[in-house]
From TrEMBL:
Biased composition (Low complexity): 1135-1150
Keywords tagged on the record: ATP-binding, Calcium, Calcium transport, Calmodulin-binding, Cell membrane, Ion transport, Magnesium, Membrane, Metal-binding, Nucleotide-binding, Phosphoprotein, Translocase, Transmembrane, Transmembrane helix, Transport
Organism name: Melopsittacus undulatus (Budgerigar)
Regions of compositional bias (Polar residues) in chain numbering: 1119-1134
PANTHER family, per the entry: CATION TRANSPORTING ATPASE, PLASMA MEMBRANE CALCIUM-TRANSPORTING ATPASE 2
Protein name: Calcium-transporting ATPase
InterPro entries: ATP_Ca_trans_C, ATPase_P-typ_cation-transptr_C, ATPase_P-typ_cation-transptr_N, ATPase_P-typ_cyto_dom_N, ATPase_P-typ_P_site, ATPase_P-typ_TM_dom_sf, ATPase_P-typ_transduc_dom_A_sf, ATPase_P-type_domA
Stretches the record annotates as Disordered: 293-337, 1119-1157
Annotated function: Catalyzes the hydrolysis of ATP coupled with the transport of calcium.
GO molecular function per UniProt: ATP binding; ATP hydrolysis activity; calmodulin binding; metal ion binding; P-type calcium transporter activity; PDZ domain binding
GO process terms (BP): regulation of cytosolic calcium ion concentration
Compositional bias segments (type: Basic and acidic residues): 293-302
Enzyme class, spelled out: translocase
Membrane topology note: Multi-pass membrane protein
Length: 1157
């Protein structure tokens, strides 16, 4: 069902049921298009306040919907479901059509068709001896009629290649869509139904629901803000405005789907879902305009790839409908090529050029040789009746030339990369890594630094209060409630129960004897647990003062580092409860409750003593210290609540607690593995420096006696700025980061600065590749900036997930180590495949070329070459790309960005095996008939039957490739190539399967494969020569690589190409080196890599699929795929700085959007 059908159906339903509710779908839609005071006035005039609108929609602002099935169904029928129909996936036929666009295949098809056409054409001069060698030799009538077989066989093998490619793409797309729907089902949102707060899947939300929104949420539907505190929304995804918008019931109550909650909490009345929400409307437009867009896009792309990128996001009152589209387009370009892609593109360009040159020379030499031999040496005339015969020869030469090109172009590369990545992604799911951007997988293998959060990643995120300082006494364990003054106890319980999110609760354990379940903010759970440990209960307090009665809330954010709640007392006065980081809150305290529960003066001197005697010892035990305080205000005059500095001062301290968050048991081992693998782990946390240091020692990030730095955010900022403290200087960062291990009390901006500083550093010879973990909304900028961003699947906010590349579904640091292992494995798999493929390429091209030049006929026929191409491309990429990773991968240092794809050892293997294979093939070609006592296959005339001689050469060639495939499993010069071979069943199946098919081709292939059946002893020789590959591999391994200085490495990224794109001045004309090469007409072979485009498209599905952009957003970002793919080849540099930044750091950030291959 298309979007427009969906839409019109809704319209009809609406007409039928308009009377049921007090407002129609159309009215609500037009209401949601208003902003600010306009909206407030409209709601007042039409419905009389938001309560009126709730009545019209038959819902209660406090109790929510009743939640009966019939009512929910009716609402879905009238107002639509919270779901946007996704774009239809490509059909198998479309994928086949795309695979057919491959240029080399097109050339082969044309050659095959010409060959077919000519074979059916009976020239009149058939019997004419005057046509030279044309009809001589062992040709009889029956054989002449078989001329069509070669053309047909080429076509058949082209069909095979196309079907294999299309099937690969189709199954991949299916897999990714499955993954996508799985993620959709997992995304839940909190609503109130029947007075109960419950979590439901986003797709179940209906108009009239009362949804609870809180810090870090991504809004799943449009709605009206009905009650809450301090709500600030980032609407940049709709409007392009980077400033956060403050929402309030009386000034701007409009909340839009797809926008992010940056601060505060509250409730909203859902007024539009699915295709009727603001995001939905945009996608409906996109869906309708998709086809025309595609056509327009193609035209625009040809005229100029740059202009499309310069489009500015619309900042219209309608919510910027064009914006999403543009944003998606520009996102596609901004991503730097991943390291591996850059290296592969460069290598493929070089190989493709060489292949093109070789094939052209082959054709020219063949044609010249034939012409000179026929017309000069034998002095024949060019007779008109002989023309078809000569043309047939030329076609044969052309086919041989194309065959050389086909073998030279490594079109298996994109396939190998895709298979390897897709396989890894699937397996990484089992290791709790949900990969959102495919290239993150491979980048992770090169990681040299990990900047990790502390809470929840290194620790269990199960907070418990273990020490407390109450009434002038420091208790090392939970105090007995009787030892605390009653007044203090009551204040403490109220302060904790009221001044924490009401969504935070402690529920009974799921299993008998288990630990109580902590729901919501974990620090607050720790405090509530403290209340329960003191044999008190927080529920009655909350029931007495429900959330609606809270007078004012200053929610927690990374700047305040504290949270405060104001309530109105029965006598009209106000009381404010505060809690937060102890050193910050204590600075604002001027009194403290003593042993009798009475306030006494608390001077700076007392504070310093308390820090020394209480807070530092707690922190050194690795505890997080929280101070709980309160303040009373008189009712007249009412304080100016917006003047935060005055309000949050002159507090009275109730108590200081030390909260323990134990280190996860598996973390120290995981960190040890990282350090052994050459990866530096740094801890970046908002906690106190002593706490951070204690935890870092427990984790093994720092070892006593080492030379390392632990800094606080303030000190870090002072050291990296110039004397005036304004500009951040790279050389100052370079002095700090190599030794920095712990950054405490850090703000999100500090985290971003550190990550950027390490990435941009040129101090060490290999550029650093940085992974970052984060869970909070404020980690967005750093996650975007990092080479690989990890978000927490359980504790992470939607904003963090949105900015990340990989989501850790178990929030566990040890899963990152698994990601490193998989990443290195991808890199190695591709190197293995390259080592194998390049050996085949070199040998096949040289054999075809020299054979053609010396004997006028390639010893390997076009169809045979295609079969070799199939085994060495498709099958070998499957076999070598699915090797499982081993722990041994973690014993070496990271490769880094500048390491070439083909190392010296690999080059030694490639050339060494090529020498062996060429020697044997040429021996067989020129003296093989004597060795085996058979007829020579050289200089056979056109259409002659296949000879045993050439069949032996073909068979030996394939056998050598098969055994060399086993050699290719090791790329670091290891001797035991069979190590772990049975752990990879796919590899064994493919090698045995290829062998079986080869027997069938040789024995029964006959004319189409130009094969003649072989005797058993001939077969034994072929296999024996193949086995020699394994022995020869051992000989090569003995030669020390260090002696072979003359071997060049290949596939290296030079410094210039390697510089991050943002710095190559934001100039749209700047094209990286590899692309400039392509523009010069090499597009021919490059499109031969055109499969890559199909893969990009599938991967895009995955990219948009796995993005946690609310069900709506996610479903339909697929619609922008078509445009994305056409754009992918034109480079450009767009900097999206409004994506996720807080007002303080807008100017400092320039995000690369993360897109994928």
């Amino acid at each position: 069902m298309t979007n427009s059908d969906f839409y019109s159906k809704n319209q009809r339903n609406e007409a039928n049921h308009a009377g049921e509710f007090g407002c129609t779908l159309q009215e609500l839609r037009s209401l949601m298009e208003l902003r600010g005071t306009e909206a407030v006035v409209k709601i007042k005039e039409t419905y009389g306040e938001t309560e009126g609108l709730c009545r019209h929609l038959k819902t209660s602002p406090t109790e929510g919907l009743a939640g009966t099935a019939a009512d929910l169904e009716k609402r879905k029928l009238i107002f639509g479901k919270n779901f946007i129909p996704p774009k239809k996936p490509k059909t198998f036929l479309q994928l086949v059509w795309e695979a057919l666009q491959d240029v080399t295949l097109i050339i082969l098809e044309i050659a095959a068709i010409i060959s077919l056409g000519l074979s059916f054409y009976q020239p009149p001069g058939e019997g004419n001896e005057g046509c030279g060698t044309a009809t001589g030799g062992a040709e009889d009538e029956g054989e002449a009629e078989a001329g069509w077989i070669e053309g047909a066989a080429i076509l058949l093998s082209v069909i095979c290649v196309v079907l294999v490619t299309a099937f690969n793409d189709w199954s991949k797309e299916k897999q990714f869509r499955g993954l996508q729907s799985r993620i959709e089902q997992e995304q839940k949102f909190t609503v109130v139904r029947g007075g109960q707060v419950i979590q439901i899947p986003v797709a179940e939300i209906v108009v009239g629901d009362i949804a609870q929104v809180k810090y870090g949420d991504l809004l799943p539907a449009d709605g009206i803000f009905i009650q809450g505190n301090d709500l600030k929304i980032d609407e940049s995804s709709l409007t392009g405005e980077s400033d956060q918008v403050r929402k309030s019931v009386d000034k701007d109550p409009m909340l839009l789907s797809g926008t992010h909650v940056m601060e505060g909490s509250g409730r909203m009345l859902v007024t539009a879902v699915g295709v009727n929400s603001q995001t939905g409307i945009i996608f409906t437009l996109l869906g309708a305009g998709g086809e025309e867009e595609e056509k327009k896009d193609k035209k625009a792309k040809q005229q100029d790839g740059a202009a499309a990128m310069e489009m500015q996001p619309l900042k219209s009152a309608e919510g910027g409908e064009g914006d999403d589209k543009d944003k998606k387009k520009s996102n596609m370009h901004k991503k730097e090529k991943s390291v591996l892609q850059g290296k592969l593109t460069k290598l493929a360009v070089q190989i493709g050029k060489a292949g093109l040159v070789m094939s052209a020379i082959t054709v020219i030499i063949l044609v010249l040789y034939f012409a000179i031999d026929t017309f000069v040496v034998n002095k024949k005339q060019w007779l008109p009746e002989c023309t078809p015969v000569y043309v047939q020869y030329f076609v044969k030469f052309f086919i041989i030339g194309v065959t050389v090109l086909v073998v030279a172009v490594p079109e298996g590369l994109p396939l190998a990369v895709t298979i390897s990545l897709a396989y890894s992604v699937k397996k990484m799911m089992r290791d709790n890594n949900l990969v959102r951007h495919l290239d993150a997988c491979e980048t992770m293998g090169n990681a040299t630094a990990i900047c990790s959060d502390k809470t929840g990643t290194l620790t269990t995120n199960r907070m418990t209060v273990v020490q407390a300082y109450v009434g002038d006494v420091h208790y090392k364990e939970i105090p007995d409630p009787d030892s605390i003054p009653a007044k203090t106890l009551e204040l403490l319980v109220n302060a904790i129960a009221i001044n924490s999110a009401y969504t935070t609760k402690i529920l009974p354990p799921e299993k008998e004897g288990g630990l109580p379940r902590q729901v919501g903010n974990k620090t607050e759970c720790g405090l509530l647990g403290f209340v329960l440990d003191l044999k008190q209960d927080y529920e009655p307090v909350r029931n007495l003062i429900p959330e609606e009665k809270l007078y004012k809330v200053y929610t927690f954010n990374s700047v305040r580092k504290s949270m405060s709640t104001v309530i109105k007392m029965p006598d009209g006065s106000f009381r404010m409860y505060s809690k937060g980081a102890s050193e910050i809150v204590l600075k604002k305290c001027s009194r403290i409750l003593n042993a009798a529960g009475e306030p006494r003066i608390f001077r700076p001197r007392d504070r310093d003593e308390m820090v020394k005697k209480v807070i530092e010892p707690m922190a050194c035990d690795g505890l997080r210290t929280i101070c709980v305080a309160f303040r009373d205000f008189s009712s007249s005059p009412e304080p100016d609540w917006d003047n935060e500095n005055d309000i949050l001062s002159d507090l009275t301290c109730i108590c200081v607690v030390g909260i323990e968050d134990p280190v996860r048991p598996e973390v120290p081992e995981a960190i040890r593995k990282c350090q052994r693998a050459g990866i530096t782990v740094r801890m970046v946390t908002g906690d106190n420096i002593n706490t951070a240091r204690a935890i870092a020692i427990k984790c093994g990030i720092i070892h006593p006696g080492e030379d390392f730095l632990c800094l606080e955010g303030k000190e870090f900022n002072r050291r990296i700025r110039n004397e005036k403290g304004e500009v951040i200087e790279q050389e100052r960062i370079d002095k700090i980061w190599p030794k920095l291990r712990v950054l405490a009390r850090s703000s999100p901006t500090d985290k971003h600065t550190l990550v950027k500083g390490i990435i941009d550093s040129t101090q060490v010879e290999q550029r650093q590749v940085v992974a970052v973990t984060g869970d909070g909304t404020n980690d967005g900028p750093a996650l975007k900036k990092a080479d690989v961003g990890f978000a927490m699947g359980i504790a992470g906010t939607d904003v963090a997930k949105e900015a990340s590349d990989i989501i850790l579904t178990d929030d566990n640091f040890s899963s990152i180590v698994k990601a490193v292992m998989w990443g290195r494995n991808v890199y190695d798999s591709i190197s293995k495949f390259l080592q194998f493929q390049l050996t085949v390429n070199i040998v096949a091209v040289i054999v075809a070329f020299t054979g053609a030049c010396i004997t006028q006929d390639s010893p390997l026929k076009a169809v045979q070459m295609l079969w070799v191409n199939l085994i060495m491309d498709t099958f070998a990429s499957l076999a070598l790309a699915t090797e499982p990773p081993t722990e041994a991968l973690l014993l070496r240092k990271p490769y880094g960005r500048n390491k070439p794809l083909i190392s010296r050892t690999m080059m030694k293997n490639i050339l060494g095996h090529a020498v062996y294979q060429l020697t044997l093939i040429f021996t067989l070609l020129f003296v093989g008939e004597k060795m085996f006592k058979i007829d020579s296959g050289r200089n056979a005339p056109l259409h002659s039957p296949p000879s045993e001689h050439y069949t032996i050469i073909f068979n030996t060639f394939v056998m050598m490739q098969l055994f060399n495939e086993i050699n290719a499993r090791k790329i670091h010069g290891e001797r035991n190539v069979f190590d772990g071979i049975f752990r990879n069943p796919i590899f064994c199946t493919i090698v045995l399967g290829t062998f079986a098919i080869q027997i069938v081709i040789v024995q029964f292939g006959g004319k189409p494969f130009s094969c003649s059946p072989l005797q058993l002893d001939q077969w034994m020789w072929c296999v024996f020569i193949g086995l020699g590959e394994l022995v020869w591999g051992q000989v090569i391994a003995t030669i020390p690589t260090s002696r072979l200085k003359f071997l060049k490495e290949a596939g290296r990224l030079t410094e210039k190409e390697e510089a991050p794109e943002e710095e190559l001045n934001e100039d749209v004309e700047e094209i990286d080196h590899a692309e400039r090469e392509l523009r010069r007409g090499q597009i021919l072979w490059f499109r031969g890599l055109n499969r890559i485009q199909t893969q990009i498209e599938v991967v895009n599905t995955f990219k948009s699929g796995t993005s946690f952009q609310g069900a709506l957003r996610r479903q339909s970002s697929v619609t922008s795929q078509t445009q994305d793919v056409t754009n992918i080849s034109s480079p450009s540099h767009v900097s999206l700085s409004n994506a996720l930044s807080s007002p303080t750091s807008t100017s400092a950030l320039s995000f690369r959007s993360k897109q994928s291959i």
